[in-house]
Amino acid sequence: MESHSSSSFSSFKSYLHALSDTPNRLSRRACSASTSSEETARPLSGADLRRSLRWHDLIGFGVGGMVGAGVFVTSGRAARLRAGPAVVLSYALAGLCALLSAFCYTEFAVEMPVAGGAFSYIRATFGEFLAFVTGANLVIDYVLSNAAVARGFTAYLATALGHPGLRLTAHSLPEGYNEMDPIAVAIVLLLTFIICYSTRESSWLNMVLTVLHILFIVFVIVVGFWRGDLRNFTEPGNPENVGGFFPFGASGVFNGAAMVYLSYIGYDAVSTMAEEVKNPVKNIPVGVSGSVILVTVLYCLMAASMSALLPYDKIDPEAPFSGAFEAGAAGWRWAGNMIGAGASMGIVTSLLVAMLGQARYMCVIGRSCVVPKWFAQVHPTTSTPVNASAFLGIFTAAIALFTDLNILLNLVSIGSLFVFYMVANAVIYRRYAPHGTSNPWPTLSFLFCFSLTSLIFTLLWQFAPPGKPKAYMLGSCIALAFGVVLLFHLMVPQARMPKFWGVPFMPWIPSISIFLNIFLLGSLDKPSYVRFGFFSGLVVLVYVLYSVHSSFDAEREGILSRKAVEMSVENGDEDQKV
């Protein structure tokens, strides 16, 4: 067997030879899809991740990951600018979208209970290249948004303490990099130490903070209904503004849903805990779906309490709850401090869950050998991916110290929506055209036609002038999309049924998820797409210059061979049965 010392990276000459062979290696590795056995194998990690989590831990992680500080901002913007009091329905619709995506994640997580989440699911369905592009983009989004969230913790802590100056200004540094935030660094490094030490202890910390945060949210809800006025659901503060429950029309509910959907992002990180879950078949569906349903109920009640306190045209879009308390709750000015304290707890839990998720993504990407295998190592004592956790934690802290990212607190946005879209496609493809069992072209043609129809609908919604022609074109797109799904359902039989848990009503539920994710992607701004395009181009460059050669070497050396996989699976069988 050829050793790694004679690999593509053993010398400059070897690397040049590898580059000259890039087309051949791309054709061999880029579309190479892994099997479920290969994804559940852990030959490069050394020790296994310890299975210590149950359904209530997953619900805690899901709620903690979703209910961050974003809801304290997005709800006000959506109510004031998009939906009015009907923002309650916007949250319900966004929660339905999240639940449909969660179903798709759950089918994969039950069948492949691994730490790689969407990276593993896409790799097992569409191959290594698309998995690397989506997985790497997701890790980048996690790191950048975690740095922004950590800096947001300082801002909300300052609000809670009534002390605005918690950052240090370095006048010698350029604008945008001169507001140094040691508190953000401290919270990131502290959480990094905790997640390196133990996943179980991380779960306990998350559970405690999440319970405190939920109690705070319940307080906000109760006070809102107690001090509020039901007339605010239909009467604007300014009589000249449009009244009623739908002041922006039915379309405002959908526009509001697109804005508040980002408050639900975070449940996908729960799927990366699958490798550490006892009895995944039972606990994962309850944990993932239960967390989304619970958060949807909380969000709808929060939006209703906010609308009860103030008319929609009096809501402060930047500080809706503290403003509503001050103006609508008999001038409770101390509420701003309470909101800051509650949001701070929410930030810590969402940051903890996101950092757990990003480390496990990186660990499994390391197992596939498209990044250095050092990231795949699991510590034998703590049973956690220490290398990936420490590296990403230090990297996040360094960015959080200097950089004012000017990114929304919930900026896992475009990367996560793209991954949700890919996972929904992957569920359909894996059911109807699993590798080597049937002709994939009918399924691929359906996915292309349906995505194109959804894209046309989204573009018409965003850019077509209002009027009857727009309504007719939108209706035609919906009818066409329905017909495409119905034709596919009647003409193409399922080639594979899940062994344990599957998405019901195939292919309707994942198709709706595809449609909604494309629709929500259409609501994002241009800078998000520019950044996504830049990072995607950078990821493709890394894949061509490094990753494809590394995975090619690993296959040649037997690391990714069937024999190595079978040995690893045999060694881990007892853990899987726990």
What keywords describe this structure?
globular; disordered N terminus; AA/rel_permease1; membrane; 578 residues; mainly alpha; two-stranded antiparallel ribbon; amino acid transmembrane transporter activity; Cationic amino acid transporter C-terminal domain-containing protein; 2 strands
Describe this structure in words.
The longest helix has 34 residues. With 578 residues, the chain is mainly alpha-helical. A two-stranded antiparallel ribbon has the order 1-2. 68% of the residues lie in helices and 1% in strands. The radius of gyration is 24 Å and the shape is globular. The chain has 22 helices and two strands.
Quick structural summary:
It is found in: Membrane. The chain contains 22 helices and 2 strands.
Which strand-content bin applies to the residues? under 5%
Low-confidence stretches: 1-5, 407-412, 562-578
Form type: globular
Gyration radius over CA? 24 Å
Helix content, binned percent: 55-70%
In whole angstroms, how far apart are the ends? 35 Å
Largest sheet: 2 strands, antiparallel
Spatial strand arrangement across the major sheet: 1-2
Number of strands: 2
| SSE-based structural type | mainly alpha
Average pLDDT works out at 82
